[in-house]
Design a protein that fits this description.
19% strand; alpha/beta; homodimer; 6 helices; 5 strands; 43% helix
Chain lengths: 169, 169
């Protein structure tokens, strides 16, 4: 299902989190569960993957992750502010030490000049650390590719969050 | 990522739910987000997929879906009782009309004579309908196959739940 390279990266990330005794939560909108789905493809992932939120509707973002409705009204669900609130909400409403969020426009519909198809915001929050944000525009990518590139970007982000968050060291 | 046959089935199920104006929630343990990940691979799924819970840890099952801790203690997380409680919890803690749950032993470890690798319990709950249950033992299947067959079984289950639940008609 997932290609070997992505599975290998997932395996390495899980090993890294396991060595540090850290648990992970995911908050996924446009990836719809694929980050959690990839990580749990690896046997033994249950000691690292604590839970995942697939918050496809705005109501889910608000009720499960306590994303303020005002953030969605003001900035939209695909925004830095929403991504940050999703990651912080996932961290708070789980037993995880680190949480990653993804919200974006996978297409083919739903794009606009300001927010084109391929725009994806990710955020990573960790206990005692800063909440960080990354913004991507994946071009020449269909829906499936936007989602898979977002998954890969999430793995990278978690790994670098581990490097910068001294409290997680 | 997902094969064409599975994507086609997902597309058909989404069209069916859409025609009836129904929203879906998922509660996934051993499939780890793949049901939601598959359904959201289809463009326009956001009007059907309301939210998903990836409840990999027992704590997540208890806190997000209100599975009674006693159910897990008495029957284990891979049991009919837990699957039913997961589906009913997902229905209750969402704005969905129908919810499907999956809990199983994807392997390669974690099996026992009573609960072998490949054992998967699914449950489907719907507003105003009965909560139903199905039990599978997927044999000669590796971890990835157990998970994919569980995903396919979940799609079938939702479709037949629509057929039996008159209140959803």
């Amino acid at each position: 299902m997932f290609d070997a390279a992505l599975l290998h990266r997932a395996e390495q990330l899980l090993a890294l989190l396991r060595r540090r005794g850290l648990k992970l939560a995911t908050a996924e909108s446009c990836t719809g569960g694929l980050i959690a789905g990839l990580l749990t493809e690896i046997a033994g992932s249950s000691d690292v993957v604590e839970r995942g939120f697939v918050v496809y509707s705005n109501e889910a973002k608000i009720s499960l992750l306590r994303v303020p409705a005002s953030v969605i009204e003001l900035h939209g669900a695909v925004s830095e502010a929403c991504a940050r609130a999703m990651a912080e909400g996932a961290l708070k409403h789980s037993n995880a030490d680190i949480a990653v969020s993804v919200t974006g426009i996978a297409g083919p519909g739903g794009g606009s000049p300001e927010k084109p198809v391929g725009l994806v915001h990710l955020s990573c929050a960790s206990t005692g650390g800063e909440t960080n944000h990354r913004r991507f525009i994946f071009v020449k990518a269909d829906r499936s590719e936007v989602r898979l590139r977002s998954v890969a970007a999430a793995l990278d982000f978690i790994e670098s969050q581990l490097g910068t968050a001294s409290r997680l060291a």
